[in-house]
Description:
The complex is a heterodimer. Chain A is an alpha+beta fold. Helices cover about 40% and strands about 15% of the residues of chain A. Chain A has helices at about 40-50, 55-60, 70-85, 100-110, 125-130, 145-150; strands spanning about 5-10, 15-20, 20-25, 35, 90, 120. Chain B folds into 2 domains: about 80-300, Beta Polymerase, domain 2 (2-Layer Sandwich); about 305-375, no CATH class. Chain B has helices spanning about 10-20, 25-40, 45-50, 55-60, 70-100, 110-120, 140-145, 160-165, 215-225, 235-245, 255-265, 270-280, 290-295, 300-310, 320-335, 340-355, 360-375; strands spanning about 105, 130, 150, 165-170, 175-180, 200-205, 210-215. The interface of A and B includes residues 11, 20 and 141 of A.
Amino acid sequence: MELSERLMVNTPNVVHETIDGETILLDLKTGSYFSLDGSGAVIWEFIDKTGDWQQVIGVLSAGNPDKSALVSASVTGFVEELVKEGLLVKANHEIPAGDERLLMSQLAEFAGEFKPPLVNKYTDMQDLLLLDPIHEVDEKGWPESKSAEQEKP
Amino acid sequence: MNHLSGNPFPSEKHELLLKASLLKGEAMMSAFQKWKVLVDFEKDIEYASFRTLPLLYFNLHNQEAHDDLMPRLKGIYRKSWSKNHLLFFKAGEVISYLQNSGILVIIMKGIALSILVYQNHSIRPMADIDILVPFPQALKTIGLLKDAGWIMQNPHYLEFNLKYGRSITFVDHEKTELDVHWHPIFEAHGDISETDFWDKAIPLQVAGIQTLSFCTTDLFFHTIVHGLRYNPEPPIRWIADGLALLKCSELPVDWERLLHHTQKFKVALYMKDALNYLVREFNAPVPASFLAEIEKLKVKRIDKLIFGHAQKHGDKNPETFIEKIITVYAAYMRQTNKNGFLARHIGFVKYLRFRNQGKSFFRILLYQLSLLFKTRH
Lengths: 153, 377
């Protein structure tokens, strides 16, 4: 994927909302549910509003000159995964410029102690919807089930 | 005020939960803390409370409240968001299919409220899709849905419901429920003209599909008339929905239209009780002049009976013979537009015969008495 390629959210198949620093996404065609937090949520918002993921690498690398290779590789991997999952697609129209200064300052906050962004994917929506969100979940709440937590090493 | 379980007016626990979900600042925190003392979160969350929890989370989060319940409340919010989006997506497919076949569609209740008023896909959980189609297109709609694989529930009710009811339910292979309405309300629906509710319908997009919604005035009217009925699951969310509609500054309520509907469909008692409650407990923005107008509306004895029945029994299955008789009588009186004692009661006899597949009134009475005799012995 070329850095110069602009991307956009694959609407209307993909819906998303950011709350309390976490972006939740749902692919309505497949029923797959995704969660992005930390820098992942901010990168998502940046791309959603500007389509420009090249700038993401630029801002995060500028705040992290020692780790620019790691930043570049992990952001590229993250974006590629979002594209592979069909959450982002190539932008077929110009995305109106949002408030880039605000978005860039949000992004810069994550540059200092950069942690590679991750895509958390949950595939079996039928099972997830059967999960009791009061009694059968761990301390993070739905969709993290108690049993999944117990299975972790 | 009666606080029976299922009563449309909330119990103390429900009222605290609603206040924690709807008020701001100290009033919100105080209600939330009191609610937590009264309710065991592990054991006491019944359906009506559960459906309010996404709104509770949203309100607490927006006011930066911290509590050990927040992660689980956030999980409930996420789950509601996912379920609703999947439901809206399916609703979009149904609407698109019907509209492409020439059916006009208004999307009702939860979906319309979420998009138009709450502008949030989580805080108003719902279990089904509700649509309204013009009465003359009801049969065509039913045929189209059957062709698309939707299965009609209780098909033997269809003929009766087309004459005396307002809707029929379908489910698909994933057990998603779709309620097809040809009248938005039961109340005096013989008086509904072809333009009522449709004349001020506004555009709405559901999952990318352009359709129609009631205007906020009609949504409010529908919320109150539909909500103020006894239901085994306490129907308390009319309070949250009603308040959201009254506070919707982009699409303010047209009080003149609301008064007109209230009068025309004989629901002054519903409106009076609901608005007085919302003003008293939640400081709802209702003009005093409107409350005065509602007070002035004349209410017939039969409308008091219907309202009393709605509050006490509503949609509960009658348990005794007498309750059954009253329920059937109230159901007929609720939907008829006939005026005058004689006209109403001749209509009631016809209704009974239709309901009992043409059997004479005497046979129906004998049958009911035999049931009574069997249950006693």
